[in-house]
Amino acid sequence: MTKSAIPKGIIYILIATFAFAWMNINAKYLSDFHPMQVVFFRAIGTYIFVLPFMAIKGISFVGYRPKLLLLRGIVGVLSLSAFFWAVQRIPVGSAISIRYVAPFFTAFLSIYLLKEKINKYQWLSFLIAFLGVILLKGVDTRIDLLSLFAVLFSALSVGLVFVLVRMLAKTEKVLTIIHYFMLCCIIFSLCFLQFWRWPTGQEWIWVSSIGVLGLIGQVYMTMAFKHSEATLLAPFKYMELIYAVIIGYFFLQEKYNIYAIGAMALIILGMIMNVLVKRKQQ
C-alpha cells in the first residue's frame, strides 16, 4: 500500500468502535440479568487478560497516585453501571448518542479542575448537541425520563473520568488505570450478588464475549491514539453509534424514525463541531 493509504490510527479506531458497539449490544441482549452482573462480566472478561500481562511486564498494580486512581475507578463504575441499566431499558443507539454529550461535562469540569477556558464556539457546539438530546427524547417515546437521566449521569461521569485520566496520564501507565477500573467494577458488582442468576445455554457466549469485546475496544483505541493525533481520530469515535444502529436493527429489531436519526445526527454534529473548534485553537 502507498503512503496515502488510510492511516493505521483510523483503522484501529474503527475496530475499537465496532468492538464497543457489539459490547453494548451484548449488554442489551443480557437485559434479563441485573445490570451490575453485566458490569461484572464486562470487567472480569478484561481483567483476566490485563492482570497476568501487568505481572509479566512488571507494571505497578498500585501506581503513584492510588487515591486518584481509586477515584477514577469508582467514577468509572458509576458511569458504566448507569449506562448498562439504561441500555437494558431503551434502544442502544439512543443511549449511545445521548452519552456522546460527555465532552460537554469534560469541558465544564475542566474549567474548575484544570483551569481551562471554553470559547463561545464550543458553547455553541454543546448547545447544538443538547438540542439533539432534547429532540431525541421528544421523538423517541421509548426513552423514559429516568433512563434519560441515567444516561446523562453516565455522560457526566465519563466527563469526570476524562479529566481524571488527563490528571493521571503524566504519572500512571494505561494498564494501571484500567486495573483500578476493572477491580472497582468487580468489587462493586459483587455487592449485588443476591440479584444474580446463573447463565444458561447460549447466554454463556454473550456473557463471555462482553468482557473480551471491551478489552479489544480498549486495546485498539489505545493503539489508535498512539498512531494518530486525537483531533484526526475524534470524528471516527462516533462510528460506534452507526455500528450500534445497524447491528441493533438486524439483531434486536430496534428501529428509528427519520426524526430520531436527525436528532442523533444533531448530537454528533455538535460534538464534531467542538472537535474542529479545539483543533483550530491548537
What topology does this entry show?
Blueprint: H1 8-29, H2 35-57, H3 66-87, H4 92-99, H5 102-113, H6 120-139, H7 145-168, H8 174-190, H9 203-227, H10 230-233, H11 239-251, H12 258-281
Helix content: over 70%
Question: How many distinct helices?
Answer: 12
Largest sheet properties: none
Give the integer mean of the pLDDT values. 92
Describe this structure in words.
By secondary structure, the protein is mainly α. It has one domain. It contains 12 helices and no strands. It has helices at 8-29, 35-57, 66-87, 92-99, 102-113, 120-139, 145-168, 174-190, 203-227, 230-233, 239-251, 258-281. Helix 6 (120-139) runs antiparallel to helix 12.
Overview features:
282 residues; mainly alpha; 12 helices
